[in-house]
Design a protein that fits this description.
648 residues, alpha/beta, five-stranded antiparallel beta sheet
Amino acid sequence: MVLGSTRASQKKSASPSPPPTMQGVSSTDGSRSGGTALVYDPALTAHRPWLPHQQDERETPLRVETVMTQLSARGLSQRCTLVEGRNATEDEICEVHTSGHVNRLKEARHLDQDNTKEFEEQFDSVYFSKFTYETSILAAGCACEATASVTSGQYQNAVAVIRPPGHHAFPDRWSGFCYLNNVAIAVRQAQAAGVNRILVLDWDIHHGNGTQNIFEGDKSVLFISLHRYDHGKFYPEKPDADPREVGTGDAAGFNVNIAWNEAGLHDIDYKYAFEQVVIPLASEFKPELVFISAGFDGAENDPLGNCNLKPRIYNYMTKCLQSFADGKVVLILEGGYNYDSTANCMSACVEALLGDKSSHSFNRCKRNASRKTLASVELTKQHHRRFWNCLPADDQFVSHAREILEAASEASGVSPELQATSGSDTSSADLSGDSFAEKDIEAETQDPATPAENRQQIAPVASSSPGAEDLPGTPAPAAAAASVEGESASTQSPSAAATAAIATSSHSDTVLEIQMEKSMSLLEQLTLQAAGDGSEGYLVCPKADCPHVASLPARDLPDSVSLSQACERCEEKFENWLCLTCHAVACGRAVNCHMERHFHRNSDHGLVLSFADLSVWCYQCDSYIERHANLQPIVDAVHLAKFGVKSF
């Protein structure tokens, strides 16, 4: 591949020079050596599917090859300096991972064709080849080189086009296509170079659970992850992706999860999250270096993310993050499994790093941030308000909260007499602006990091109401009435005012029981209720027009259907599903997610039938679907096995 880039004089080596320090990065007048370093090595393509059962894997060399081809076709790589990659040393890797983890990865090189599949099935969504170890240490080394190019002052920013990804890798285990945590290893190298405050922003559609685990006790690293959560039902399907996970010990408040609970997210949803959470937190934290865990599986047409993000939002987010740390940004590729979408979005990011005026500017948008987005963002803010000074409630959300409460009280026959509150905290007025109407992106990214005059300089502060567990920073209901009388609208947060107003009502107990059933906070209730654009909470509305039913291949029915058949991957017999394409049986999300993984390996095997309730789910549509005539024979067969009669 001919890139036409200027090639730096660095050579691949297993023994890099000592990490450069941050001294001399900026001169007294704030100037730096400019430019963008592009770190890539063709040897990153060595790890690839090589066995028949791996042929449907999505994490393949085409991910980086397509990116590099498009960067060259657009003339972007030619404007960067191509920095040669290198292998990470074992010492660098063991700053993050255990030596046992590294040794197991080395040993996997010796797996033969017969035992590779058996070995893979012990782990979560990974595959192994003869070159997994070599490619992984090269990816980690490239991330380190990208970091060194910025911390040394040689380049303003850097991008590492690498694979395998890393953010699901834990210190002692691999998962989700990830073997070594590239970003975490690079962060440790930056810390060794003298960087004291580092922001890691992970916009991959999957939660960066490995990165969170590594830094959750480190208050020098602010980790922010925007990801689909779906109430714990989206990969990696673990509770550590919940917004309640704020960090541990004296690092509480430095782990921030913005957890979406729906598919189909749009640019404006991410723009809203940046306005309300990311930009305010970064302004208060004042990072000295920014890392972007840049996964593009939230992009439109990605088979795993099922969202609708366009290149313009990735360009926008990159520009926003360049407003911090004197523009010192290291962008490292994570996921992204539609190769063209990933290449388009990465190109938009590189355009931002190069300082180009955006060719992806926002035009007027017909939609606003969804109500579920409002709820998710506000829930994150509620859990972090006790640690930061910069997270006021949003009036739009409080207005929606009142609508929900009023509807609930009307249904119960009581009137909470909710009092409207127009006051809002002005500490982020310069950041929030028109949160929903999409203005021109160029006008909004002139200086998004400028803090308000009255914003305090650095983060964690104690909560004014430490006992408020469900709603951090808001008065407890027992004290709410006094708070309403004693506080003016200009000093009381809208969410506190709404909660307080409810408490003043003679019917408050009834309303709170309705809204906080099972000890859930108002915000948690909103994320579970029909708070979105026609989306369902736990009320299932099957999709009537699934387009994938018609393409279901004609197959002979199995001679018999055994509802006691175990999952073919883990031998579990609880909550199993039948693939309607190949009749494989695998367990569902409540067990070990093997049917979902079956779909990830076989993208046209999206229709599955539940042995538990005979419902039909389509992974491509991300929805239950109505039974179509094409499905009736197999439904009848399962119904007969379960009840002794055919379905009606």
